[in-house]
Amino acid sequence: MDARLLELIEAEAWADIYRAVPAALAEEHGIAVLELGAAAACIVARDVPSLMLNRVIGLGVGVPATPAMLDLADEAFGETRYMIPVAPQCQPSELTTWLRGRGFEAGYAWMKFQRGADPPPDASTTLDVRRAGSGDADAFAQALVAGFEMPAWMEGWVAALVGRPGWSCYVAFQGSEPAAAGCAYIHPPVAWLGLAATVPELRRRGGQAAIMAARIREAIDAGCSAIGTETGERVIDRASASHGNIMRFGFQEAYVRPNLVSPPGDEVA
């Protein structure tokens, strides 16, 4: 498999997440997506100072990055700090040097994973796991926002993914209470698994394992021969429960992806 697909599907998914935001929320909270090159997406969410939500994803993978693209990103983010993942596939090789020259510093790196079309292992849970339909959109959003401890206003944004073309959203219930959620963005022959979280007080009930298995099965049934996902790099002083769960479901470590973080706004060139 062309390793670039792992980056391109993630960039495509995140760009679509930002296109899905309802217009009123986009205007109120300054949310936008900026295309940089053929596949790279610049993600902007000025009201939420989170590097997860303020990133340039896929830069230099679809087409080589240029200093002009970096200038456009700086202009788009303004004084908001943001992150640029630099995958091994990124071109040109000088990209990291360019970013360092602009004051970017190394942040917490991520591990990228991939798997093929082998069936996932069974995953049992006491929770009721289902593919979210229109009637489950609010519950899906509530579980995801609570699990990530995001602002409540983001529920209207996340709910918009349910039923959106290319997306499969899953939600797990404890009785009538939303407990966990996760997404798959499927574009055969590749799929991306992301946006998975569990309500803190309802963890360790097998919800994420069951949602992982369900998303993998759906991607395989849709004709995907490659499935990618990611989580934080394993380091001695930073726990990563997600890493073990991902490996349990047949994923293999593909590569570590460094994340370079912009300097404070008044220092951005």
Describe this structure in words.
β8 and β9 (177-187) form a beta hairpin. This protein has two domains: 4-113 and 256-267, no CATH class; 128-224, Gcn5-related N-acetyltransferase (GNAT) (Aminopeptidase, 3-Layer(aba) Sandwich), CATH 3.40.630.30. The longest helix is centred in the first third of the chain and has 16 residues, at 4-19. The protein is 30% helix and 27% strand. The protein contains eight helices and 13 strands.
Helix/strand/pairing class, anyone? alpha+beta
- The span between the termini is 38 Å
| Quantity of strands, as a count | 13
Helix content: 25-40%
Query: What series of H and E elements makes up the topology?
Result: HHEEEHEHEEEHHEEEHEHEE
- The Cα radius of gyration reads 18 Å
Describe the main β-sheet briefly: 7 strands, mixed
Q: If you average the pLDDT, what whole number results?
A: 91
Poorly predicted residue ranges: none
Overall 3D geometry? globular
What's the SSE blueprint?
Elements: H1 4-19, H2 23-29, E1 31-36, E2 40-45, E3 56-57, H3 67-77, E4 83-85, H4 95-101, E5 105-106, E6 110-115, E7 128-131, H5 137-148, H6 155-159, E8 167-174, E9 177-187, E10 190-198, H7 207-221, E11 226-232, H8 241-248, E12 252-257, E13 259-261
Parallel strand pairs: 10-11
Antiparallel strand pairs: 1-2, 2-3, 4-13, 5-13, 6-11, 6-12, 7-8, 8-9, 9-10
List keywords for this structure.
13 strands, three-stranded antiparallel β-sheet, globular, 2 domains, alpha+beta, Aminopeptidase, 8 helices, 30% helix, single chain, 269 residues, seven-stranded mixed β-sheet, 27% strand
